[in-house]
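Side project, low priority. Logging it here so it doesn't get lost.
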Amino acid sequence: MIRVGVLGAAGRMGRTVCAAVAAAEDMQLVTAVDPAAAGATVAELLGEAAAGDAGGVTVADSADALVEAGVQVGVDFTVLDSARQNLASMAAGGIHAVVGTTGFTPEDLEHAAGLFKCSNCVIAPNFALSAVLMMRFAELAAPLFDSAEVIELHHDAKVDAPSGTAMMTADRMAAASGEWNPDPTRTELLPGARGGQGPAGIRVHSIRLAGLVAHQEVILGAQGQTLTLRADSYDRSSFMPGTLLAIRAVTNRPGLTIGLEPLLGL
């Protein structure tokens, strides 16, 4: 039985993770952390039915509770500043980490790799298997096309742009092919109309709208043809198979692992 703690437990993703862990036969939700809901019970966050045996767990106000509860794997879906602190706390406590918080810089990832020597860490920009496959397909297609653009669409509470998924997609496409047609645009009537210029000149566009959850398109073009790859997450439950996969796998992945691809053999 894997003893799991969830950070950011009161947020929408945190509550979804708590419910998924509570329902998994090989996992036990032993603590939840969220300063905004400290003192509440998991049953109060999720309802009695969804909380199951974890209903009586009290929400703590700091990551120190993970060590006190004997957590083996901590799951972090918080915000960037909190996640940085939580990573350091988990590494110091010998706790494995699964992190879905986005916005990490390359320097953050390098720092995290140095932290996890006695325990392991998986950081993924997206836990939806459809999105993982989309990124892989885009990477495979990149050398066969002349131009490409990435359009990511998220809910109106997402604070970072572009998304981590969009940035990883562009990075992987650029690594697969550095030869793309130049942007023909010479005049932007509205600054930013062509989106942000990512690696190898690949344009990345961010949309934030109420009603969305997490969506991304990659459009690749060549003479007389285009290829459109799209992944849609309509509900946060779409991220749970990948999250549970990472929880089960992290103990056997020494050091820092970026993305779910290595866990899926992609």
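Brief comment: DSSP finds ten helices and twelve strands in the chain.
Revisit when time allows.
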